[in-house]
Write a structure and sequence with these properties.
0% helix; 4-stranded antiparallel sheet; single chain; mainly beta; 123 residues
């Protein structure tokens, strides 16, 4: 943590991290932010980026904590994929190919094991 009067600058490359809503873990230990083609994982205690979750080939459009596992998160992208991550270790677990750009991702407490994705209207 940064104490009163202390100034510390931590520089990490990438694009804007405020274009999509960030996600805070239930235990408040981590902050996950979409940033360009990756998801940045920040420690809330040290304020540093602990992992860059890389693998998407286009902009990350959403981040969602996996409802059934508090150590995993989904990311979706305009590259037409949804990726599952162990964000605490920075490990890619699985890629789901949707085939269309994915604009956002959601989960419902009433639909266990199901995620919902928003894609463009097919012509």
């Amino acid at each position: 943590m940064v104490g009163h009067g202390d100034i510390r600058v931590v520089h990490r490359g990438g694009s804007k991290i405020n274009s999509r809503q960030p996600v805070i873990t239930q235990d408040s230990r981590f902050l996950l932010c979409a940033s360009g083609e990756c998801v940045k994982v920040f420690s809330t205690s040290t304020e540093e980026c602990v992992h860059d979750l890389r693998g998407h080939t286009d902009a990350v459009t959403g981040v969602l904590l996996k409802p059934s596992n508090h150590l995993q998160a989904y990311s979706c992208s305009a590259d037409g994929t949804v990726r599952l991550w162990d964000f605490t270790e920075g490990i890619h677990i699985k890629t789901y190919v949707i085939g269309y750009p994915v604009y956002s991702i959601y989960a419902s407490a009433h639909h266990e094991g199901v995620i919902f994705v928003v894609t463009p209207h097919a012509k």
